[in-house]
Amino acid sequence: MSFHIEAITVLLNGLQQGAIYILLAVGLSIILGTLKFVNFAHGALYLIGTYAGLLIALEVNLTSGQLQAWGFGQLGLGLGYIPALLIVPFVVFVVGLAMERWVVEPFKNRPDTDQILVTFGLAIIVQELFRAFFGSSSLPFSQPSWAQGPPQVPFLAAIPISSWRYYVIGITAVLVLIVYLLVEFTDFGLVVRAGTRDPEMVELLGIRLSRPYIVVFGIGAALAGVAGVVGGPLNPVNPTIGNEILVPAFLTVVIGGVGSIAGAVLGGVLFGVTQAVLVATYSAWAQVGLYAIAAIVLLVRPQGLLGEAEVAP
Length: 313
Prior knowledge:
By secondary structure, the chain is mainly alpha-helical. It contains 12 helices and 2 strands. 69% of the residues lie in helices and 1% in strands. The mean pLDDT is 90. It has one domain (3-300): ABC transporter involved in vitamin B12 uptake, BtuC. A two-stranded antiparallel sheet has the order 1-2. The longest helix is centred in the N-terminal third of the chain and has 33 residues, at 3-35.
C-alpha cells in the first residue's frame, strides 16, 4: 500500500470514529448547555441504541444471559439496517423523554455532584440489566452487505475501507446540520437559546421552558441512539460499550466548548483523527493522546476551542 493511500485510510478512519464522538457530543453539548444538567447516563442511551439497532436489523444467536436461559436462543426482527436507522431514533427519543421527566427534572436544580451520581448510577443499572439479559459475550453486529466493500467509484475504490464508514460520516454530517439549523434558525431554537441565557425573562413572557427543554433532551438522546446504530457494526457489541465511550464523548464536549455544536464537531474530528493516527503509529498511546489533547486545550483555553467564557467550568 502506497503512503498516500495509507494516510488517506487513516484519515478516513479518524473521521469515521470522530463522527461517532460528534453524534454523542452534540447531544451532550446541547443538553449541558441548555438544561445545565450533567448527564453521565448518555452512554447508556448509546448502549440502548446499539442493542435496539442490532435486534431490529438482524437476528442474533444468544449464547448466554437470562434470555437464553428462558429459551430465546435466537432473537431479533431481521428488518435490515434502514428500518433500524429510522426506528431507533424514535425509540431512544422516547426513552430520553422519560429520562428527562423522571430523572433530570427532579435533579435539575441539585448540585452537579448529585446529577453525576444519579446518572452514573442509572448508567450502571442499565449496563447490568443488559448484561443480565444478554450476557457478557460480544454479539455480532455485521455491517450491511451493501456497504461492506469499498465504494465502486474512482479513487475511493482503491482505499481499503468499507462503504459503511462513508455512510457513518455522511449520516453524521446530515444530522448535525439538521440540529444546527433547528437550534439557530427556528422559533424553537430561539426559545431554547433565550432560555439558556435568561430563563426568568422567558418565563415572564409566558413561555414554558419545560416543554422545549424536554424536547432538547429527547433530541440529544436520539442522536446517541443513532450513534449506536451506525457505530455498532464497527465495534464489538457488549454491555460495557456505553460507559467505555462516555469519557471520550465528554472530553469532546469539553475541548469543543459546552453548548457549541461547531465546537463538538471540531472536538470530535480532532479526537477521531488523533486516535486513528496514534493507533496506526503508536497504538499504546492512543488513549493517552486523547487525554493529553484535552489537558493542553483546557490549559490554554479553559472554555474550550469554540466555547464562550461564561459557560467555562
